[in-house]
Amino acid sequence: MLGWIVVFVLFCLLAYMWWEAHRNRVVRIELSFPQFPDSFRAFSIFFISDLHRRTLAAKIVEEIKGKADIVLVGGDLTEKGVPAARVKENIRRLKMIGPVYFIWGNNDYEVEYDLRSLLIEEGVHILENRAVVLQSANGEKLALIGVGDVSKRKARLEEALREVDEHSFRILASHNPKIVQRLRPEHRISLVVSGHTHGGQIRFLSFGLYEKGGLKNINGTAVYVSNGYGTTNIPLRLGAPAETNLITIRSSEENGEKMLV
Fold first, then answer.
1. Which of 147, 244, 246, 256 is 20 to 30 A from 225 via CA?
2. pLDDT, tens digit, for every residue of 170-190?
């Protein structure tokens, strides 16, 4: 009898871990900064990282459509063994939300086909140690900066910053959050968005291989690390459920708030 109870409990635990790994959540983050350009009013990013083997759920596309200015893929869009057709389908679903920007993750280099060409053919903007500068009607600027993967020694932050105007509000996208160790005050990065860690993926109480995803203030820079949407090695999660993110940025002078962290 005891053996059957143990088997039932283990089955329930595995079922719950599978459910956590396949959830379709949109976690909303509201941020305000005194230096954010007033003329942009609000700027919203749909951030999704670490899809790996998953296909983006249509319900997320419907939930976010019309609410995001851009889509930012935070690396590990795919991995070894994932067919190109699935990657194309994910990109086409993301394009229904808004223009898609992409940074490389460590697993993106594993695929057997030419991922770069696929992305270009689908109209994805690749931010590989470069920046794109968005400008409001009155000339205020927002810079979206992307670097290569840190663990592959492909991150060239200084190179990416060369394209950025001195007065631009700066958002840095890096698949691996370890990029924060390279930041200096003169870089004037206001926000960093990352993935890679999966929030530890499987956590026991407060213990995991990595910290659970979330928002921190590190030396005056807001850093958001997402739990990510997919999984690697095993399709299970515990204590770090799958997520996508809608990050909305405003000026704190507009509503009297300080940076929310």
1. 256
2. 999 999 999 999 999 999 999
Q: In angstroms, rounded to a whole number, what is the distance separating the alpha carbons of residues 192 and 218?
A: 10
Closest to 244 measured CA to CA, from 72, 85, 102 = 72
> 1-252 adopts what CATH topology?
Purple Acid Phosphatase; chain A, domain 2 (3.60.21)
Beta-bridged to residue 30, according to DSSP, are 248
Task: Note the pLDDT of residue 253.
Answer: 60
Which residue type, as a one-letter code, is found at position 85?
A
189-245 pLDDT per residue, tens = 999 999 999 999 999 888 888 899 999 999 999 999 999 999 988 999 999 999 999
Question: For residue 131, how far is the Cα from the chain centroid?
Answer: 16
Model-level pTM?
0.93
Bridge-based pairing state of the strands 244-251 and 26-33: parallel
Q: What is the rounded CA–CA span in Å between residue 147 and residue 179?
A: 9
202-210, long-range: CB within 8 Å, 24+ apart, which pairs? Answer: 202/17, 202/236, 202/237, 202/238, 202/239, 202/240, 203/238, 203/239, 203/240, 204/238, 204/239, 205/239, 208/239, 208/240
Q: What are phi and psi of 162, to 5 degrees?
A: -60, -30
Helix (H, G, I), strand (E, B) or coil at 85: helix
* One-letter amino acid for residue 222 of the chain: A
Q: Where are the alpha helices (DSSP H) in 96-245?
A: 115-121, 157-161
* Structural tokens at position 240: 């770090």
Structure tokens at 42: 């609000």
Query: Which of the 8 DSSP states describes residue 33?
Result: E
